[in-house]
Amino acid sequence: MNKKKIIVFIILFVVVLALGMGGYFLLVHKEQNKDALRFKEEYEALNDTIRDSDGAKYNNVNIDKNNPIKYVTVEEAIELLDSKKAIIYVGANWCPWCRNMISPMLDVAKKLNIKTIYYLELDDDKSNYEIQNNELKQINKGSQSYYKLLDKLKDYLSDYELTDSDGKTYATGEKRIYMPFFITIKNGGIVEAKEISRTLEDGQTKYAEMTEKQYNDLYDNFYETFGKIYKSDSTCSPDQKCN
Question: What gap in Å lies between CA 52 and CA 34, rounded to an integer?
């Protein structure tokens, strides 16, 4: 093969490689955007609707279509626990505590230029119990992957207990991931795994809109939590530009 043919071959190879990589990144971006729209639609679908369980009205949330949410399965979440850097949000659109922290969470993600927050829904995987005739009954058993995740997070979780109308407490013998729950991972280890939600003011229900103070408190909480793995300058304040 002469020098001219070698040069042509190299050029063709580079072009094909570039097109392949471009196509791959476009596909990844398309999938990410698909999840972002799904997240927006699922949460906004409950705006001003009535919750069947207690007749309360859901608060409004407005979510940017370009949000960083990516849906994951329980097994994928378990694999992420060994990743170099990740944030996992465990929540549900019907959870009023979750709905009220969406705005400060996404604002902090934008501030810190976080491209992906992994979103885990457990409705189809978790176990559930009810108190029936003064006895604890298991309504459904959790999936095998769910119990595996509980075991991975056991040092960070509270006991799963139910309390009846008389104040009697029933222990299920399981741990529980109470939402909204956030797991931050760095260099294959869990940095933090905790609930992040607002503190209600006197007379305020979990469905009520946030006050400015509650928003600011949540913003600062997310900034501190996410900043431990996503900002390079530990002295960077919320009012400064961070990477």
Answer: 29
